[in-house]
Amino acid sequence: MTQTNDPELTILVSAGRSGSTYFTKVFGEGLDIGMYTMMEGQFIAPLYHQLSQYGDLQQRENLVKLVETVHGTLPFRNMKRISKIETHPGEILERVQQPTYTEVLYAALCLVADKLGRRHLGFKAASVDILTLHQVFPNARFVHIIRDGRDVSLSVAKVHWGPNNVYAGAVYWKHYLAAGKRGRDFLQDNYFELRYEDILQKTDLLYRRW
């Protein structure tokens, strides 16, 4: 793994209904990572592609606007609504070391980890965003969670946001699986695969890898 001054960051990626909520809990508690079940990074890739709207982040008012946007995303709203943990944009801003999107996100993740009493940083995200997330966090460690496609297709057909039949669910799974695996060539030693079924049967396999 490349040695850098960036904080250690672990990103769990998967298709929906692949066990990411379960593994967020396992990683958070077992590996002291600042994750909670609603610590999701779905906003990161879309916001990355909209950064031009914020102008030069060297200008403090632009940086403040970006920080406020990040603080207004679902993970922070859920911290207050579900976990009753209060945060403020200023708590992120005071941690920003350099006026960049990546540094704003690191500052936000550090705040989450501190509020949860954890030492390391992490979140979960969709595997289709893996390459964009790698651009934002070039030194992050990615864990690709893979669940049997038959189980995923059955599961997503039951939720309001998913495909409405098993065939469409299988297509969905294949798309997310392929997207996640495309990250291997770019991430190399910073890419890991976890098979959902294997870990459920023998959880200690998870801790042997770190």
Description:
The chain has 210 residues and is α/β, with parallel strands linked by helices. The chain folds into two domains: 1-35 and 118-210, P-loop containing nucleotide triphosphate hydrolases (Rossmann fold); 42-116, no CATH class. It is 50% helix and 11% strand. Strands 2-1-3-4 form a four-stranded parallel sheet, with helices on both faces.
List keywords for this structure.
4-stranded parallel sheet, 210 residues, alpha/beta, Rossmann fold, 4 strands
How is the topology of this model organized?
Elements lengths: L8 E6 L5 H11 L13 H5 L11 H12 L2 H8 L7 H5 L7 H16 L4 E6 L3 H7 L4 E6 L2 H8 L9 H22 L3 E5 H6 L2 H5 L2
Parallel strand pairs: 1-2, 1-3, 3-4
Quick synopsis:
The protein has 210 residues and is an alpha/beta fold. The protein has helices at residues 20-30, 44-48, 60-71, 74-81, 89-93, 101-116, 130-136, 149-156, 166-187, 196-201, 204-208; strands at residues 9-14, 121-126, 141-146, 191-195.
